[in-house]
Amino acid sequence: MVLKTLTGNYAVATAVKLARVKVVATYPITPQTTIVEKLAEMVETGELDAEMIRVESEYSAMAAVYGAASGGVRAFTATSSHGLLYMHEMLWWVAGSRMPLVMAVVTRSIGPPWNIWTDHSDIMGQRDAGWLITFSENSQETLDETLKLFRITEDERVYLPGIVTLDAFIMSHTSEPVDIPDQSLVDAFLPPRKQPYVFKAGDPIVMGNMPRDLKWNMMVREDMCRAMERAKRVIEEADELWGKLTGRKHGGLTDCYRCEDAKHFIVGMGAWTGDMRDAVDHLRDRFGLKVGLIKVRYFRPFPSEDLIKWLNNAMSVVVFDRSVSPGAEGPLYIETVSSLASSGVRSPVKNVLAGLAGVDLAPADISNVMLASVEEVEELGAFKQRVTWFYGGE
Amino acid sequence: MVLKTLTGNYAVATAVKLARVKVVATYPITPQTTIVEKLAEMVETGELDAEMIRVESEYSAMAAVYGAASGGVRAFTATSSHGLLYMHEMLWWVAGSRMPLVMAVVTRSIGPPWNIWTDHSDIMGQRDAGWLITFSENSQETLDETLKLFRITEDERVYLPGIVTLDAFIMSHTSEPVDIPDQSLVDAFLPPRKQPYVFKAGDPIVMGNMPRDLKWNMMVREDMCRAMERAKRVIEEADELWGKLTGRKHGGLTDCYRCEDAKHFIVGMGAWTGDMRDAVDHLRDRFGLKVGLIKVRYFRPFPSEDLIKWLNNAMSVVVFDRSVSPGAEGPLYIETVSSLASSGVRSPVKNVLAGLAGVDLAPADISNVMLASVEEVEELGAFKQRVTWFYGGE
Amino acid sequence: MPISIKDLPKEKYVLPGDTACPGCPENMGLRFVGMALGGKVILVIPAGCTSIIQGLAPGSGLNFPILNVPFASSDAVAAGLSAAKKILGEDAVVVAWAGDGGTADIGFATLSGSAERNDNIIHICVDNEAYMNTGIQRSSQTPLGAWTTTTVGGKKERKKDLPLIMLMHRIPYVATASVAYPIDFIEKLRKASTIRGFKYIHLHSPCPVGWRFDPMYTVTVAKLAVETGMWILFESEDSKVSISPSSRPYLDKSKRKPVKEYLSMQGRFRNVTDEVLKEIERQVDENWSTLLKLAA
Amino acid sequence: MPISIKDLPKEKYVLPGDTACPGCPENMGLRFVGMALGGKVILVIPAGCTSIIQGLAPGSGLNFPILNVPFASSDAVAAGLSAAKKILGEDAVVVAWAGDGGTADIGFATLSGSAERNDNIIHICVDNEAYMNTGIQRSSQTPLGAWTTTTVGGKKERKKDLPLIMLMHRIPYVATASVAYPIDFIEKLRKASTIRGFKYIHLHSPCPVGWRFDPMYTVTVAKLAVETGMWILFESEDSKVSISPSSRPYLDKSKRKPVKEYLSMQGRFRNVTDEVLKEIERQVDENWSTLLKLAA
Amino acid sequence: MVYDEITEIRFHGRGGQGAVTAANILVGAALKAGFYGQAIPFFGAERRGAPVVAYARISKLPIRTRSAVRTPSVVVVLDRRLSELVDVLEGLKVGGTVLVNSPEAPDMRGAFRVCYVDAVKIALRHNLVLSGWVLVNTPITGALAKIIELPIEAVEETIKELIGGGLGELNAAAARESFEGVRCVE
Amino acid sequence: MVYDEITEIRFHGRGGQGAVTAANILVGAALKAGFYGQAIPFFGAERRGAPVVAYARISKLPIRTRSAVRTPSVVVVLDRRLSELVDVLEGLKVGGTVLVNSPEAPDMRGAFRVCYVDAVKIALRHNLVLSGWVLVNTPITGALAKIIELPIEAVEETIKELIGGGLGELNAAAARESFEGVRCVE
Amino acid sequence: MLSEGHILPLSKPVVGVSGRTGAWRIQRPVFDASKCVKCRLCWLYCPDSVIDLNEAGGDFISIDYDYCKGCGVCVSVCPTKALLMKPEG
Amino acid sequence: MLSEGHILPLSKPVVGVSGRTGAWRIQRPVFDASKCVKCRLCWLYCPDSVIDLNEAGGDFISIDYDYCKGCGVCVSVCPTKALLMKPEG
Ligand SMILES: Cc1ncc(C[n+]2csc(CCOP(=O)(O)OP(=O)(O)O)c2C)c(N)n1
Ligand SMILES: Cc1ncc(C[n+]2csc(CCOP(=O)(O)OP(=O)(O)O)c2C)c(N)n1
Ligand code: SF4
Ligand code: SF4
Ligand code: SF4
Ligand code: SF4
Ligand code: SF4
Ligand code: SF4
Ligand SMILES: [Mg+2]
Ligand SMILES: [Mg+2]
Prior knowledge:
The complex is a heterooctamer, with two copies of chain A, two copies of chain C, two copies of chain E and two copies of chain G.
Chain A: E1 2-7, H1 8-18, E2 23-25, H2 33-45, E3 51-53, H3 58-70, E4 75-80, H4 81-86, H5 88-96, E5 102-107, H6 121-124, E6 132-135, H7 139-153, E7 162-167, E8 175-180, H8 183-189, E9 206-207, H9 214-246, E10 254-257, E11 264-268, H10 273-287, E12 291-296, E13 298-300, H11 304-311, E14 316-321, H12 331-342, E15 349-354, H13 363-380, E16 387-390
Helix pairs in contact in A: 1-2, 1-7, 3-5, 7-9, 10-13, 11-12
Chain C: H1 25-37, E1 41-46, H2 49-53, E2 59-60, E3 66-69, H3 74-88, E4 93-99, H4 100-104, H5 108-117, E5 122-127, H6 162-167, E6 173-178, H7 182-194, E7 199-204, H8 208-211, H9 218-227, E8 234-237, E9 240-243, H10 259-264, H11 274-295
Parallel strand pairs in C: 1-3, 1-4, 4-5, 5-7, 6-7
Antiparallel strand pairs in C: 6-8, 8-9
Helix pairs in contact in C: 1-7, 3-5
Chain G: E1 2-3, E2 6-7, E3 10-13, E4 27-31, H1 41-45, E5 51-53, E6 61-63, H2 73-77, E7 83-87
Antiparallel strand pairs in G: 1-2, 4-7, 5-6
Bound molecules: thiamine diphosphate (2 copies), iron/sulfur cluster (SF4) (6 copies) and magnesium ion (2 copies).
């Protein structure tokens, strides 16, 4: 174990190296680029024993790693924003093939206008594709979760691809101390690759031709949903094991901060959950408000059970979304409310749309939102407005 | 007005002609192909005075009609399934540009395995992109709604692109009688094209460069959401006016069938709402069950208010989804539940995942589901299981 | 040493009872791939007629390992697969088998990118000069004057010259082939499989359904394309171009059969005017002359 | 009648104070486009340095109508825009202005498709031989041996010869140009704007940041590329190829400056070995010889 | 049940034989006769000569269902040999009708009516042959009209609109002949 | 408030001058000294010579916030002329410090401390010049260490790890010199 | 295909995936052994792999009529008219 | 840009979109009128459009130092050394 200052992007590259990935194919896009560059350098210097395919687009990046994975090796790619959108079709295909594969997505705004700052629209727009999706809070979690994803996606109970996200700049380019696990420890944690089938010369299996029986095809889809369900357990297990090996547990599908006695909850995901922790401390320590934070670590599979468990008796819930589905609300909000309602949990829930297009949100902003929300709910027992746009700052 | 037998696809092509579209760019994909072919023929024979750009991909199809629309003319494209996925990035760009534009999407399964039958995954996966999305039930509605979409998207309160969907084969290739409105009537209904800006030589406006102030960029997004809100009214108005001109009203965001005194509700969208009507009649006329159907005509903007209004006192609600987000549930279910919960409506809601991959569902199947559901709710006051996979048939 | 029919392996890689149309040139081509490379091959196949030819799951009418992939992705998938096999030290010839649409249109950036990187794969473009699987729409490979459902008055543009475009990519191996000349095709395939890097083979594949001729004449029409000089068989190793033996006689223009003979066998050219015919003839000459310049 | 500098219009289409790096070749190129076509032009610009050069909204440092578009889409957007202008009867020269990445890599299917359809647009590839906007990664246009952040040991593959590839598309007009030869470029632009159909111009654009030279030498380096024969100025109308006057002297190999002179001005070639240098020299000869064959 | 009051028809043909056209003609004719109709192609890889099916629904009321036709009341068999390949009687309603293109009464027995018409002979008599195929799809719609009690004039008109010119006339005449020539064994 | 207990630093430099590297060195040094740190580049189009900023945070506790540094307690100005272009004092905390690369005390007044070091001279003395640029970014981290009370050894080590070889030694020496040479006007 | 409890979009090669495609035939190729010169062209070109060569003896070629689609390619390439098309029953 | 109540991603051309880019300069080009032969090459090549020609009289060229980025291209193309780079203050 070595403590080193790493950006989120270098944390990803380091994890890829430690996972002994064999094929990397990536296409540059700000702010993912330093991942590509680092990996290219590692391959060139022999630090990483892998093939690097310098593809001509993200579509081909995903296609190439898919081909490699289908051929039986661990494969990795990374992208962001428009690059992620450009490989949309491939994402569905890879998941439908049940091919384990790991990708890092640096979340970034979608244009127009061109904008390189963080925003979760890119990744949220892929939530139906059948990939596991995890959000990380800092470089350490980025590194750890990237490694875990290899284990999780290659677990025979899952066999689905997975995405680790890190927010543009505030994570991808921000340097901070990271514990880098030893290779031997990683080797102990990551078993040799398993996958549902491998393409080899002489073994005529055929993947993907049209179905005779449409019901069978529908069952193929249902099976993906079942794998997502099972992944919940697998994710917990990976966290347990990693915790045992390194002493670091980040949580399973969610991580709850000061929730035990909390009455009011923040729900959020990604980089700003760090700021939310600061806000929680501030609200508790300065105002004596019983506020807790539910950090959604995995958006897919969606942590309905966790949310229900924690929010069962919440007096109020504020869901911060860093993206919005025009004509509806923030995706995290929609699914949180839907999960709670399905189980009869009736806490008032409010959606704060903030931080889109990279707009900065400080702990003080979050505290202010919570102070106002708590006041409102304590007065009215409900929120006046379900959804608000919040720009923060002065 | 002429009554003619038309497939859903030809209904689309007819509407495009009547709307006096000036640029068409499409790429073939089953089962959208007959739209392309019909339009190509119309252009070649001079029946439609337009430029046809025979692009090399769907990405370019969307790019080309976007360019044409930006240049100031009405433009149209159509696609399906993988074609829709392949233009994903462009969809976001067009909406973010606020460029009015109409597209037909023949809903079709996503591979693997390759599958050409209907399934709503393709269109549901685009629900965040900022497009209006409407589902039609038959060729007549397809024709009418395509025409209306031109009016709605070009309304200055909206200025967003729009998609009309029709389900693969059971609509796209099924022939049935359609009232074709006269050109003069359509001309009266469709004002000359309006759009927020037009590219011309000599007028140096610049679209899409990076923002100085990220908050402004976030406001650009918020404005899209506001436009979606306003679109609700514009959609109602278009339906009113069309009704006045043709005697045909299909409803605004939703259409409610035998809802007035209904206690139990089916919620669905697309072709099978026709089958659902049959099922409603059957359940009422044969079993005396007070069942109603809420047909969701527009998924974007999402008809929260309508659902709340109709389902306020529902004893039970069964939402039929023809797609699923692995790791969560059906998108229509998720958003229905979330909408209801946000307004404190507490009717039990159940999600039936059916018809994926083109699996056939008959009115009798729907009736059976409803019979069982009603029984369950009347007994328990709730549903035992939130989500069920239903394969129908024998 | 030339291959003789007698020595070709008998194992069936296209199984009786698959879903190809009667007289299908793609089926023929697949059989030749089997004869040439047999069990060494892994096929990566984007959307196109060959997706259908395989028949319905859980069965397959093709006896190869086949990874079906999205329309625009085949060469990139093949590149990844080939990289994996290299790392694993496994022997395999990874072949992207794509239609003219999947090759020259939607998938062209993918193809060109892979060629530039010199990925170790063979790309075979099975060219039936239109999008057949979706019901005969024009592609960039549709020739001037040909009817398709999206060019009902005949295509206005010329067939994009993909073999020459690939030649300009300066990849280790480029060749044209035809289903009417299986031995030539098989020889080229075998040669390609021994070369490291990106290999491109363009297989002319007349389709009875889309070109509107009796399925009996698939081979006849394919042969006529060569005999009229409409289709030139050549190969290029390391950018050294040579006309293949079967096309060599037609270096001499007077040996070529009239283009009209080729067109008149096909319903798709029914409405070709004299003017268009002349232009097609001019293009044939131009194609020969360009190729010969490069071969010089 | 050759253009003289004196007659060039003075109106500013690149405004002082934009966001280009000092010595930026793309800024130069944009100025020349303004001088050539002025107020007639509408620019369609995919992601790349020119997206940034414009500066931050709500301002723009470029005084053209500009539609910024996704990376792979420029020619298709331009085709649509051009069709709209045609229908509306408006005069406009629609120009897709794209980097080498947007042209030759991710956007190449779009470009090739538009060329094959012969859409009425001009595509200008502003070629700085790498992805500069994302911080100097290799593209298919990066030359052999050049350092980039993704080829730290020097690129292993050859520069994809896009002008020749476009020539093989047999479009009405293909030309190469260089920022060091503005009059030549402007003449070509003006000619292109009078031709209906698809026009391709490839503008060689040495970038001080990515190529690692002092910004003062943008023009010097660009000139050396021509003088060493590394970059050949030519044009082709209706497939008739002619070497442009500024490159004509270098038909004679002995007139060409040593390639090494060009390489040694640029940090990116610092680690080029003698072997690679020889190979580059060989490629220069080969490029000339291929082009001359086609010009014959 | 509303959805019982619809006449559902299934066509069995071969790829290239035009079963879908037959369904379309039928629905067009129904429209002229004041009925609602729906023509549904079975879509798959249609290969020349391979068995294909198409469906139609006819009803007095608008047809809302789009689900598969599972229990047709009429089955039309364009090529007698198909009955060796596929179960053409699958799902046929009790009391339903099977109409076969055949010179003589086909050997079928069950709780249904068997009708037949020599569509090949009729088609040949009107010269309806195209690249080796005898065009029986149009003629047979006449016989079908008789069975489901549609006026033959509606069929004739629809055919003429669809095909036009002399060929339309020939096809319409063939349809009328088959309308008149259809025989049923009860 | 927890988030008040963090030292926030803003660097002003020019494109090409290496403000981000300075921030990284600082954070690396802090790590060695047992602190937590965060280095945040401002990312935009960095053009040679154009004003750029970078940020750092140093704290005894892990740093969780990732929001923008709005009210730094230290501002570092790598090029004196920048203060004519941008408001380098924007948001500077009352009682904070501004450290300027300058041969003499810069003319700045307010509720903050002004420090300066002649980083150019120091850099030149150690031959730290690259293609026309005097490399002041590394040297100035020494002065900064003095101001925020980090051990200079940590800075030296970090620099040597980062740069390596003789050049690393030179840079480290320059940093120590600037650590010692920094002057403050209270 | 079930693999360790999963339902995967996989298939395996099988003869007759599209049923007995011999039934698609409208015409059938008929072999006249007496005219056959054993050139093997019919075998080489038959798109459906339904011609087998009997190198050992007997009729030199045999056609699997269960799957022969009746395209006629074999007839067109046969140099000696040892194969001819006949209408199906 | 506000258009009929909408917030659109639009911009308008403006001088100095990136501020006074003259401040980016490390060196400045200095003009010596006496050496100028009016070839206009500096004007032609200046990437930033900051050289103006005074055809009417006075110094033949003028440089807008508010925006000149000091790249030196003008100096490199000037055939007579009428332009030279000098370090900025
Ligand atoms: C992204 C995408 N667009 C369109 C399609 C529909 N599609 C499937 S096959 C095909 C045509 C294939 O043509 P070609 O590549 O020439 O192969 P062929 O069918 O002629 O063998 C098309 C357009 C698709 N599957 N995916
Ligand atoms: C789909 C997509 N992938 C990646 C990017 C990131 N990107 C923006 S510009 C650029 C490189 C542009 O290179 P080039 O076209 O050569 O233009 P240059 O910057 O060199 O002018 C890249 C990779 C993007 N915007 N969209
Ligand atoms: S359409 Fe042509 S290429 Fe496609 S399967 Fe049929 S015969 Fe073969
Ligand atoms: S990186 Fe090069 S091409 Fe891009 S703006 Fe800077 S100088 Fe111009
Ligand atoms: S008719 Fe066709 S399928 Fe039958 S044997 Fe001859 S070539 Fe083969
Ligand atoms: S092609 Fe004719 S001659 Fe040759 S082997 Fe076949 S049947 Fe015999
Ligand atoms: S130094 Fe550069 S920007 Fe300044 S005038 Fe000269 S060429 Fe123009
Ligand atoms: S380049 Fe030199 S000589 Fe020519 S106009 Fe400019 S200053 Fe005068
Ligand atoms: Mg094809
Ligand atoms: Mg570039």
